[in-house]
């Protein structure tokens, strides 16, 4: 729904700086996106899912026809916004479309780093979540930001957000939260590398402009190079020494220069047992997910029962049946996997998992901190803890669905869309039903949204609530 706001508010000054897409290629590109989703994604493999996708296709065709009529080109962000109903129809926040970046362009943007981190507060305004240095001064957390390069900040975020992920079940609030947290990478994929930006702030005397220059930060891809373990994992005790705090920034299969994920987690629980600490907070805020083996390993220390990473895994469905299919193929379609490889993967994902031995198990109180970007594998872990009754969730509603999430197996070459490989489409291929499914998005037992007063005071209000709950 946010795409309509973005299109209505779009101005000619903003479009002049945009990457442009040929109008006569728009319909063909949209059809290609539709077909890739239809053939690869598990959602339209169901009869109802295919109907929803087909309805979205009709909507997209009409919207594109109206927009490109009489025009030679449209802005990249307009095209993505106009075809975003195809993503919304699947309810899948793993389904992502954006300007294609090769490895060189990706590195250039990441190294041209603008430390602009925003968060929307209770008034609906965007403020600095952390301080930022400008050409003339430094701005404190909580400073209201009203515009970026002369455009209303809500407009800018609304334009670049569609089809960018983390919005299962059409959770646009999570989508906007994710983009606002660090908007400049996505902004530069649409507008190109920026030598500087102008942010408009509001203070007691009215609006004022500030120029911000990028900080050149060497980029190391953690998927290809080893990084210090402290960039991903951290464990410490609270100030009173009564609560262990485990921060996991990512569950991805990163390799570290000075440690190992599995040994680190084991050492955390060994430390908790040795010190007799019976209170643990696991902070997975801003953790976008990763490897199933890593969340399984973590949860093995928290439970005394067998558990499942997923109760059901689906890669296909009845909507993909052909007229000449035999009875066995029809049954396999209904069961969600036809090929031998997919059935083997299905069995592996749904096999029961054992807890660690009793002497290693942690029996203390557990609170898990989540926010809208606690997604994918992080969402699955949070739902394991909550659904099993093992612990409480504190924070803000996740972008992840509590009913089904979508994982991926290796897909080979990127899916490129457009006559000049203008866009890249990312499609996950496995539907994962959690062991404890629920309707809607994963919702904390205690919802705590950061307030302006808290941000200005440098407080972590969600952590404070988690500390209160774990001590009860």
UniProtKB/TrEMBL annotation:
Ranges where the Tail specific protease domain occurs: 243-401
Molecular function GO labels: endopeptidase activity; serine-type peptidase activity
Biological processes per GO annotation: proteolysis; signal transduction
Keywords: Signal
Record-linked Pfam families: Peptidase_S41
Protein's recorded name: Tail specific protease domain-containing protein
InterPro entries the UniProt entry points to: ClpP/crotonase-like_dom_sf, Tail-specific_protease
Organism encoding this protein: Neolewinella aurantiaca
GO cellular component: outer membrane-bounded periplasmic space
Signal peptide: 1-25
């Amino acid at each position: 729904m946010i795409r309509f706001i973005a299109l209505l508010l779009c101005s000619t000054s903003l479009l002049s700086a945009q990457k442009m897409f040929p109008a006569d290629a728009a319909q063909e590109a949209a059809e290609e996106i539709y077909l890739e989703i239809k053939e690869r994604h598990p959602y339209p493999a169901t009869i109802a899912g295919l109907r929803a996708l087909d309805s979205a296709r009709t909507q997209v065709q009409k919207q594109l026809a109206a927009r490109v009529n009489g025009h030679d080109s449209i802005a990249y962000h307009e095209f993505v916004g106009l075809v975003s109903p195809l993503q919304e129809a699947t309810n899948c926040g793993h389904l992502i479309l954006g300007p294609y970046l090769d490895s060189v362009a990706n590195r250039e943007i990441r190294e041209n780093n603008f430390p602009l981190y925003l968060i929307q507060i209770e008034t609906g305004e965007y403020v600095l979540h952390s301080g930022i240095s400008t050409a003339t001064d430094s701005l404190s957390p909580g400073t209201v930001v009203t515009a970026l390069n002369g455009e209303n900040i809500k407009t800018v975020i609304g334009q670049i957000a569609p089809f960018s992920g983390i919005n299962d079940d059409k959770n646009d609030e999570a989508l906007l939260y994710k983009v606002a947290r660090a908007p400049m990478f996505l902004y530069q994929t649409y507008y190109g590398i920026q030598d500087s930006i102008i942010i408009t702030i509001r203070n007691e005397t009215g609006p004022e402009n500030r120029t911000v220059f990028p900080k050149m930060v060497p980029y190391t891809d953690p998927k290809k190079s080893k990084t210090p373990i402290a960039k991903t994992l951290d464990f410490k005790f609270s100030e009173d020494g009564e609560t262990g705090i485990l921060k996991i920034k990512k569950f991805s299969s990163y390799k570290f220069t000075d440690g190992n994920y599995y040994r680190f987690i084991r050492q955390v629980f060994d430390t908790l047992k040795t010190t007799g600490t019976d209170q643990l907070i696991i902070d997975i805020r801003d953790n976008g997910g990763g490897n199933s083996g890593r969340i399984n390993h973590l949860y093995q220390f928290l439970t005394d029962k067998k558990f499942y990473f997923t109760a059901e895994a689906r890669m296909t469905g009845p909507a993909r049946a052909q007229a000449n299919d035999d009875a066995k193929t029809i049954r396999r379609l209904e069961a969600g996997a036809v090929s031998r490889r997919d059935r083997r993967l299905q069995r592996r994902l749904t096999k029961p998992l054992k807890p660690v031995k009793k002497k290693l198990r942690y029996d203390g109180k557990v609170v898990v901190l989540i926010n809208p970007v606690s997604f994918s594998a992080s969402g699955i872990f949070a739902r394991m803890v909550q659904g099993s009754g093992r612990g409480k969730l504190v924070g803000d509603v996740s972008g992840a669905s509590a009913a089904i999430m979508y994982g991926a197996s290796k897909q080979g070459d990127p899916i490129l869309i457009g006559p000049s490989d203008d866009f890249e489409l990312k499609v996950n291929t496995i539907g994962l039903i959690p062991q404890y499914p629920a309707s809607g998005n994963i919702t904390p037992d205690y919802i705590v949204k950061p307030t302006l007063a808290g941000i200005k005071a440098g407080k972590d209000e969600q952590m404070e609530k988690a500390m209160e709950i774990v001590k009860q």
